[in-house]
Amino acid sequence: IVMTQSPATLSVSPGKRVTLSCRASQNVNNNLAWYQQKPGLPPRLVIYGTSTRASGIPARFSGSGSGTDFTLTISSLQSEDFAVYYCQEYNDWPPRYTFGQGTKLEI
Amino acid sequence: VQLVQSGAEVKKPGESLRISCKVSGDSFTNSWITWVRQMPGKGLEWMARIDPTDSYINYSPSFQGHVSISTDKSLGTAYLQWSSLKASDTAIYYCARHVRVATTVYNAFDVWGQGTMVTVSS
Description:
By secondary structure, chain A is an all-beta fold.
């Protein structure tokens, strides 16, 4: 399975609403997660199961989609949200759990 | 729950290496452990996962045969090892724990170690 994220870089102002896209080359059902990574830190799980927020993730983050097309929406960007975001499928068998190449969200 | 990884390593090509990931704050066998590679300036690559309960393992085809993973339940620790390193193994390696909700384990990763930087250079 190939995971394609778009765009590669997104420049947005704080307070704006932003949508990040992730497309799978084949159906991954709802087995899709999103991670946030800041420089020098490990990734942080944001969303799993397409739309379930991970523990401690603010409500401004939401995930949606099904099958092959998924989105991560941040309703009102805060300064701490600027980071690289990766999607990851976990439907493949045998497992490969492929990540997308990432979308860099910058100010 | 915390995952604490061993420190940075500098090795020569052909050398062997084992890095570790210690789980604290929860039962070691409560969830699967996964390993992820991040090459310098690049994205995330899933390598392998292990069930600490019975040591059942899955490897990504991209890493099968080049790395091995294991656990020591008595120490609450998972390991990633190489028998013969290559320069292309230079990367940060993360261990992470699979999400567990009640009795269901998901193949997304909610607790991460701090990463171990492995540098392989002659």
